[in-house]
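Quick illustration, no need to memorize.
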Amino acid sequence: MSKILQSLKLSLLNVGYAKLDPLWDYDDVISPFIRLYYITKGKAMIYHSNEAIELKPGHIYLIPSYTFGRYKCDVYHEQYYICCLEELKSGYSIFNFGSFDYDLEANPMDLYYFKRLLEINPNRQLENYNPKVYDNRPTLMDFEKKNEELSPSEFMETHAILEILLSRFIKDTNSLSVKNNVKKEFGMVLNYIHENLHESLTVSQLAEFCHLNTDYFSRIFNENFGMRPNKYIQSKRIERAQLLLLSTNNSLKQIAEKVGLENLSYFTRIFKSHTGKTPGSFREEQSKK
């Protein structure tokens, strides 16, 4: 993984401090950038990657890019937050190459780095805390201009702090390797899938996205991810359905539609084949925990 990380570029989008109340309640959030939080007061909940995570003071949190989630604050909480873009030369995401923790007990240096990043990057706060306003792909020109306005030392320190904070969450690596002859678009296709799970996705459509022959695309996909594209898409639909069952009161029909499986009986059958339970049984069991 260390060789892969040599091409990692992290670009700061936003950094700030927020005092948030029950208006911080957002569903169906998926953003093309990383979020990092340091909680100082109160509590809230985030749901992503099939986990329900309580935001607690003295902890730091990671939400990977292109990760579908839900955010909810019932009373009040305060947080330092960072939003940053990640880019690898291959076009893949760093999150394709390893396992990450999402919730860590903070140490004194973590708080220092959040504060320091805000100190050298003033006026980079979010203007609106609703992810729906800013969760689409950012216009990089504006952010790049602000980053270029930093002095050389501030620019290098900003990048170093982002790397240090992100490194805290790396748990282990897997065996995924990227072949040199695979186009950059092939890495980006995973993000495309995650952004469009609610739509009809076909292998030919994904192959066209990568400018590849359908059969060749399917074979290379299988070599890189250990499964055919259709199976991967189906598994991600069910993962998202599990999160929606856990974190929302949406009906089964609404959830089926949100994950691109509009036929409820087909959705139920596929869900059970992946989890061993019907969607209704899964929700009932989760509600008792």
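Residues 229-247 form the longest helix (19 residues).
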